[in-house]
Input
Amino acid sequence: MPRKPKKGYFVRGQFVAEGSELDIEYKRELKGGIETSKTDLKRESAEVQALGEALLTLRGEARERLRLPDRLIEALKELGRITNFEGRRRQSQFVGKLMRKLDPETLEAVRTALDEQARGPAHATAMLHEAEQWRERLLADDDALGAWIETHPGTDAQQMRALVRQARKDHQAGKPGEAPRQGKAFRELFQRIREQLSVHGDDDHADQAAAQSREEDA
Output
């Protein structure tokens, strides 16, 4: 009596019998792949929903440039009004649902706008630190003024020199054991440094934009 053929399937030309160790291994791998895909989809969905919630922090002008659908704009306004935890959670999910309908280019534009806004405060903080460092150098080193004027030619050298001189006098006028005096010249010196750093930074951005424009024209 002929033997009943085993149930199974072929993988790359190899027969895999149902119930065999190889069959169990393949099914485990397949199940793992499906679970991974579901996990990825869930993570992406959560990321897009969080992106929608972050839109509430985006300044009005930047948000307008994105040209978001009216329905999404209204949903975001409603989300901003809701304070109840459960109501806010449901509205956030609705915002996420609308966000997932956006095309990839718009989603990327949203990420870019949020990143640019976040970099603004960081840039301002870095500029303050740089201004403080320059003030310390100018007060501690006579040669620092020449270095400053060389890198910032728009500076009023006479005014800067007078501020440095007065700030040093105020510093030396403090009594022994007391903290150094921080007079008007000390504060004004910082203000002048910060203004020049700001102008210099704007010029750099303008130069970069002009260079980019020349590249595009070429």
